[in-house]
Every structure is written in C-alpha cells, then in structure tokens.
UniProtKB/TrEMBL annotation:
Binding site for GTP: 12-18, 40-42, 305, 331-333, 413-415
Cofactor note: Binds 1 Mg(2+) ion per subunit.
Enzyme Commission number, as recorded: 6.3.4.4
Native species: Hansschlegelia beijingensis
Lineage: Bacteria, Pseudomonadati, Pseudomonadota, Alphaproteobacteria, Hyphomicrobiales
Binding of IMP, residues: D13, E14, G15, K16, N38, A39, G40, H41, T130, R144, Q224, T239, R303
Protein name: Adenylosuccinate synthetase
Gene Ontology BP annotations: 'de novo' AMP biosynthetic process; IMP metabolic process
Amino acid sequence: MANVVVVGAQWGDEGKGKIVDWLSEKAEVVVRFQGGHNAGHTLVIDGVTYKLSLLPSGVVRSGKLSVIGNGVVVDPHALATEIERLREQGVALTPENLKVADNATLILSLHRELDALREGSNEGTRIGTTKRGIGPAYEDKVGRRAIRLRDLANLPTLRPKIERLLTHHNALRRGFGLPEFTVETIYEELASAAPKVLPYVAATWEILDERRRAGDRILFEGAQGALLDVDHGTYPFVTSSNTVAGQAATGSGVGPGAIGYVLGIAKAYTTRVGEGPFPTELTDEIGRRLGERGHEFGTVTGRPRRCGWLDAVALRQTARISGISGIALTKLDVLDGLDEIKVCVGYRLDGVEIHRLPASQGAQARIEPIYETIEGWQGTTAGARSWAQLPAQAIKYVRRVEELIGCPIALVSTSPERADTILVADPFED
C-alpha cells in the first residue's frame, strides 16, 4: 500500500481537512510537513466542528499518531493553546499520540511584530499575510539564527542564541524607530513555553522511519496550496514555504521513496485569500453567490475569500509540478443551480494565447482568461455519495475538468460531511 501525500492544488482552502480526515481512517500516522498556524483546516465530524491551525487533521481520530514535522514553523504558545482547545472538545491529546519534531523552528513574538510591521508599512508591498510571524521565522531558519524546539530542553544555552538572533532583529527595529528587544524578554517567552511543549518533542524523522519500516501507512498533510509555493507559486504573493508534494519528504525527514500516491485537492471553482493575481476572479453576482454558498471565509483569519471560475490551466500546471496522481474535487454542490459554468482553458498575454501560468509578476497581472462554457445543472449534488446520485450534466462537468487538467479525478466531495464523498480511486490502494 502506498503512503499518501495530500496537497492543495490551488491557492489553499480547497477542503483538505475533510479529505485528510476521511483518509486518516486507513492510515496509522498523519504528518504535517510545512507551514505554520497561518493555515487552517475545518473538520465536521458527526455534526461537531473542529478548527485546526497547526495540528494535523488526524488528531481527531483515536488510535492515530500525529506528527508535526521539521518543515513546520511552530509558535509554541499557539500550539499549547490549540492542544488545550481540542481537549476541551473531548479530543485526547497526549505525548503518546502527538509528536513534534525537535528540529522544528520556533515562531516568537518578534516574528509576529515584524510580520505586522512589514504588512502594514506600505500598501504597495502588501502580500496579504496572516501577520502570524510565519515568513520572518522561515527567514531566520535559512539565515541560521533560529531558535529550535530542541533548544528549549537546555535553557542555560538559550541566551547566547537569543543574542545572535537579536543582533539581526534589533537592527530592523531600530530602522522602524522601535524599542529594541532585550535578551531577558525573549528568554522568558521561551522559558514559559518550554514545559507546555517539551513533552511532545521527539526526533520525529526516526519515528517515521521506524513506522514506515514496520509497514504502517503514513498520510502526509500539506497546508495552503501549490499556487502559494515560494518557488512555483504566484511570487511574491505566496507563502514562505514549499507547498508542493516534494516538500513532504524534506519537511518530515523521510526519503522520496517513502512517498507513493500524491492526492491533489481542488475545488470545483477557484478561491484565494489575500493579495496577488487571480485570473478567473469574479466580482459580480456570480462571484458573490459562490462565496455565500461555499461559506468562503478563512478558517484562521475569517477573511472573505475571493471567488472565481475553475482555472484549468493553473490546476494542470500544479498537477505536473507536484506529480499529482489523482485529484479530489471538492464543493461540487456549490455549482448547483447555475445555468452555465465557465472554465478557464488558456490565457491571453499581450495578444498571444498561452497555456501555462507565467512566472513573471508583471505577466501574471496582465494575463486574461480564455473561457470554455459548459452547461450547468438544476438538480442537486449536495450529499451525493455515488455517481448515480449526480445529475448527468454534473458528471459531464467533472469529466471535462479531468480532460482539461490531464489528471484523473480520484474522488468527489459534495458537502463538508466526510461521508458525502464519491470514491473513484482509493489513494491507499491505487
């Protein structure tokens, strides 16, 4: 049986939480491998809603090992708060079923402040971040000055590391005309977090290798979407980590041979949160209808999502870059009742037709979508659990999407409830 990687195939918010939860019943281990608590997953199980920001979706299932990998940047206080909130909802989280990589980078208050300062300083340079310190923490990681989780286990060694960190950050704060951080302030912030998170800290790469060799099925869970990848997305309007499937190996400490099936999650239309290009965005009544019917508000931020038609060009591109084996098409029911549905099948750039998303920021801002119009359906797809329950035209739409993106549809989701899923190919069996 293949280990499975789940990645968002658009700009995030595709409904990965439900799909990961649905798949986690067949997995023994669920791993989060990149991002931070800027991403959010909403799970609806037996009528109970769980909102996750940092923890893997598998935590709500008993008998599973949940792992936060080294590719994740961790706000220790936010992690402790999320653990406690889920406990209040009856989710049993212990150091036995939750492990956090000892070499994961920490997000501190100075990262959050810097994130907010940059985002609010000049309207022309806004990226649309959540201001939770994700980007600055990744900067410190690659700058080799970060504090890591394992450092909390040896508090006497922290002060020299904090001094090195503040050499960089206090210079920035002087540039903003702000008071400098003291070593003692950051030390107290870290020391207070240590007892809350250290029980969960482990060499997770070793645990994953042991579980893989023992034959356990591993589900690797990505955050955000491939179009927000720092290399392959709509740069600079991207997140600060690699969100494509290849990061599952790097961000969890397993070899690429441990990955079998890559499942990409895509909505039957398109949304994005924050700034940046969005070729198929709709600002008219149809766009508002998609947002209202799809309840398009960010799990973490509450921000309304921008909505538009499905962009088959961008989706085909991310399928290739991530090596996607099959697509889980979500929120098909949101399209119910539309007389016609449009799908972007190409772009026009300076009068020339192209069939890929260009890397240039300027070109991305200038491209115009070329649409194919598909007949809609008046029946309902909501709650369908088999092809027989779908209107004929809805099936035609799914099949046309499959053709346009050059990738098979592995399953179709027709509501937030995990059981409302049409399975075409089982990623763990394929």
